[in-house]
Amino acid sequence: MRKIEHIGIAVKNLETSNLIFEKLFGAPAYKQEEVESEGVKTSFFMNGPNKIELLEATNPESPIAKFIEKKGEGIHHIAFDVEDIIAEIARLQQEGFTVLNEVPKKGADNKLVAFLHPKGTNGVLVELCQEIPN
């Protein structure tokens, strides 16, 4: 893992939350997109070298909808940038971590992503991210 890629925050209303984070950071989101496969709409903000991803559920079966129902709005995951997501998945499995999706999938912000089960990471959902080459 090379660095923290972003911190994901689950929100009930993306439009309202965008306004809050625009005021907080003094700048608008640099990117918004929908990831249909995950049932979310996202906004990305930069704060210095750091990124924040806001996530709103687009359907009640979305992992974000279930998270908010159970825990309320707040930090949902921490994402780490990796050079080779396949190799990192294999390494982490050998270390005993439970990978929720062994085959990376396309996520937001032009990334391949995979998640580690939070039961093995002190309750924190960990996302692995690899830039998709153009």
UniProtKB/TrEMBL annotation:
Listed A to Z, the keywords are: Metal-binding
Listed PROSITE patterns? VOC
Query: What is one process in the GO biological process aspect for this record?
Result: L-methylmalonyl-CoA metabolic process
Q: Where is the signal peptide?
A: none
Say if the entry is tagged with keyword Heme: no
GO terms for MF:
metal ion binding; methylmalonyl-CoA epimerase activity
Question: What Pfam families does this protein map onto?
Answer: Glyoxalase_4 (PF13669)
Which Gene3D superfamilies is this protein grouped with?
2,3-Dihydroxybiphenyl 1,2-Dioxygenase, domain 1 (3.10.180.10)
Name of the molecule in the record: VOC domain-containing protein
NCBIfam families this protein is in? Answer: metmalonyl_epim
Tell me which InterPro entries the record gives: Glyas_Bleomycin-R_OHBP_Dase, MeMalonyl-CoA_epimerase, MMCE/EMCE_epimerase, VOC_core
The UniProt record lists the VOC domain at 3-131
